[in-house]
Design goal:
The complex is a heterodimer of chains A (270) and B (356). Chain A has 270 residues and is α/β, with parallel strands linked by helices. Helix content of chain A is 37%, strand content 17%. Chain A starts with 24 loop residues before the first helix and ends in a 5-residue tail after the last helix. Chain B has 2 domains: 233 residues, Thiamin diphosphate (ThDP)-binding fold, Pyr/PP domains (Rossmann fold, 3-Layer(aba) Sandwich), CATH 3.40.50; 112 residues, Rossmann fold, CATH 3.40.50. The chains are: A alpha/beta (270), B alpha/beta (356). Bound molecules: iron/sulfur cluster. Iron/sulfur cluster binds next to α7 of chain A.
Chain lengths: 270, 356
């Protein structure tokens, strides 16, 4: 593969970044920047909208437009921004706590409106920035700093949630599959309407350490072994399914997006 | 409003706020239904699309103010309206707008609180919430209309001030003014310059940031930012609506009031003047930053200062903090959901003067 010049999107002078050694956030950022270079966007055509958390610090390392909202609210800010600037290509990079806990209301409604935005969810299976607490996406039984005896609550599948809510494109993969990751990101950004890519990514500092998975390398292998293609996953029995993450494309469709509906309706909308 | 060309209209406070927004070229409203502010959303839903604008009903007030901030960053003049419980939900993002310097206008129609309180009854008890509801040292602008015309004029001004100072501006009205119908002269011909929405690279964050918009935790960068955010507003108060003064220059009794209570005070002072009493009234138009200088100057010449407000003394506390000797300052307060009447203020004036 010929890697296009993605470095023009990187604010090199801002490095080094704050992420731990072996963190997956750098892999996600690089995948995104490569896709932007492939699609050859001009700086003023794109905006990276982030929330609060480890992954959301990505905005500090890019040279193009960046918006960082408050914790959980990024998609609500973007709803207003996209009405004012319908042609701006907005990529939203948020963590699992940000989108599935505090911000889940906005996530559902952004998908329901079919807001034209590509949401990349960096799912590191815990709250990294605050020291490794469980999130709604943390697998049941996981050890975290707030579930020392194993998480009791159920795990949420946000991909299925936004599919039902009305998203045009939903996929999930892991940073282990870099080619697939770039493909999904490319498809999500190219899609008009709401698209979401859930990206399973290692947090060796907390999730990996608490759950004795090992260092960065072992975590990548763990994600390889823990993910199964969607069709294979669907053939498993429910007990078996609990041990795995499915990966692949869940839905791809072309329902009219929020702005188009709003314009055509010529009137108020929610 | 039936015929827009008519310059004189018969409008409720809520309606006047909407038309001020539309005439000030606001083209985006995001909101969530809440009494007693709902008519603002209803009229925006009807009228904004006719003026090339957008109405969006968000999932909650947190989302409403977030969408307003997003639209404003995208170059649309934007506003929202709410009441106490909704204002409470908006606070984090109001702080965001202050920190990230995003112009936006919030109309807060005060109702009786705390909590759900009484949704349809008036109060003036959000004075401190508007100022300090969001955490951290910051400054913002709060304007307090006392009737339909001022709802129009101050909301109109709010959009310009929000952009001039790059800050959230709160227009603080109450359930009575919101629903009181009065004659309002509108200015459909006014020229308005849009200063936001240019083509520069947008790099915005609520984290402490340097002048390029990149986050920073350097002590010098932090101190410079926080000082500038406060100073840019507090150092230019003469650009904000100044208090209105009526009556005697050396009063026996000075009334300080705002909003609906100032209307009663106006009548009370008029009645007192008929009795040849030296009484005057200072009506606050800008509540925050607090007009300390005017209050100190006029308050020093008064024998007694009475602060009339529908709360337990939020503005009274600030008046004392202006350096007026505390024994001179008293409150006329009501917290029973009814408004202060002119005769109640007049009785206070007469009691004060009789006891002197
Ligand atoms: S805490 Fe975890 S997610 Fe955060 S930077 Fe470190 S490894 Fe990455």
């Amino acid at each position: 593969m010929v890697i296009p010049d993605y470095k023009k999107y990187l604010a090199g002078e801002r490095l080094p970044h704050i992420w731990c050694a072996g963190c997956g956030n750098g892999i996600i950022l690089k995948a995104l920047l490569i896709v932007l270079a492939e699609l050859n966007f001009k700086s003023e055509e794109i905006l990276l909208a982030t929330g609060i958390g480890c992954a959301s610090r990505a905005g500090d390392y890019i040279s193009f437009q960046r918006f960082q909202g408050t914790h959980g609210r990024t998609l609500a800010f973007v709803t207003g921004l996209k009405i004012a600037r319908p042609n701006l290509r907005v990529i939203c990079l948020i963590g699992d706590g940000d989108c599935a806990a505090i911000g889940i209301g906005h996530l559902i409604h952004a998908a329901r409106r079919n807001l034209d935005v590509a949401v990349l969810v960096a799912n590191n299976l815990n709250y990294g920035m605050t020291g490794g607490q469980f999130s709604p996406l943390t697998p049941t039984k996981s050890l975290t700093s707030t579930s020392r005896a194993g998480k009791l609550g159920a795990t949420l599948d946000i991909c299925r949630l936004v599919e039902v809510a009305g998203a045009n494109y939903v996929a999930r993969t892991s940073v282990f599959y870099h080619g697939e990751l770039r493909k999904f990101i490319r498809e999500a950004i190219s899609k008009t309407g709401f698209s979401l890519v859930e990206i399973l990514t290692p947090c060796p500092t907390y999730y990996g350490r608490y759950n004795k998975i090992g260092g960065p390398g072992e975590m990548l292998i763990w994600f390889r072994d823990k993910t199964v293609p969607l069709n294979k996953y669907l053939q498993m029995n429910p007990e078996e399914q609990k041990e795995y993450f499915w990966r692949g494309k869940l839905v791809e469709r072309d329902a009219p997006d929020f702005y188009t509906r709003c314009k055509n309706g010529g009137g108020p909308d929610d | 409003m039936t015929e827009e060309k008519n310059r004189v209209q018969f409008l409720s406070g809520n309606e006047a706020c909407v038309w001020a927004g539309i005439h000030a070229k606001a083209r985006f409203f995001a909101g969530y239904p809440i009494s007693p502010a709902t008519e603002i959303a209803e009229i925006c839903a009807q009228e904004l699309p006719k003026h090339g604008g957008f109405y969006i009903q968000m999932e909650d007030e947190i989302g409403s103010i977030a969408a307003v901030i997003g639209a404003s960053l995208g170059g649309l003049r934007a506003f929202t309206a709410t009441s106490g419980p909704g204002l409470a939900l908006m606070q984090e993002n109001i702080g965001y707008a202050a920190m990230a310097e995003v112009p936006c206008v919030i109309i807060n129609v005060q109702r009786f609180g705390p909590s759900t309180g009484i949704a349809t009854k008036p109060a003036q008890s959000d004075v401190m919430t508007t100022r300090w509801g969001t955490p951290g040292d910051h400054s913002l602008i709060v304007l307090a209309p006392s009737g339909g015309q001022e709802c129009y004029d101050l909301t109109f001004a709010a959009f310009g001030l929000a952009e001039l100072f790059r800050t959230p501006v709160i227009v603080l009205i109450d359930a009575v003014i919101a629903h009181l119908r009065e004659k309002v002269t509108v200015k459909t011909e006014e020229k308005f310059f849009l200063i936001n929405g240019d083509k520069r690279v947008l790099r915005v964050t609520g984290l402490v940031h340097d002048s390029f918009g990149y986050s920073s935790d350097e002590p010098e960068v932090t101190e410079k930012l926080i000082t500038r955010l406060a100073q840019k507003i507090e150092g230019h108060q003469m650009l904000l609506p100044r208090p209105r003064f009526y009556g005697s220059e050396r009063p026996e009794v000075l009334i300080i009031s705002f909003g609906i209570s100032a209307r009663a005070a106006r009548q009370a002072v008029y009645l007192a003047e008929q009795e040849d009493l030296a009484v005057s009234l200072l009506e606050l138009k800008t509540l925050w930053p607090f007009p300390e200088e005017e209050i100190r100057k006029i308050g020093a010449k008064a024998k007694t200062v009475l602060v009339a407000e529908l709360n337990r003394g939020q503005v009274q506390r600030e008046v004392r903090a202006c350096g007026i000797s505390p024994e001179k300052v008293r409150g006329i307060n009501k917290i029973d959901t009814t408004v202060i009447t002119p005769s109640e203020i007049l009785n206070e004036i007469l009691t004060v003067i009789k006891n002197d």
